Amino acid sequence: MENAMSEAYQGLLEIDRIIHEPARLLLVTILSAVQEADFLYLLTTTGLTKGNLSSHLTRLEQAEYLVQEKSFVGKTPRTVCRLTPAGQAALASYRQQMGAVIGE
Amino acid sequence: MSEQMDKVVKETYRYFYVDGLVETAVGLLFAFIGLVLAGWAEFEQGSWLLKTAVIILPILIIGGTFGIKWLVGSLKERITYPRTGYVAYRPGEPNNKRWLLPLFAALLVLLMFLFPAWLNKMAFVQGALLAFILGIIGYRVALARFYLSAGIAFAIGLLATLFVANEVMGSAITFGGTGVLMLLMGLIVFTTYLRQHPIPEIS
Question: Taking CB atoms and an 8 Å cutoff, what residues of chain B touch A49?
Answer without folding.
Answer: none
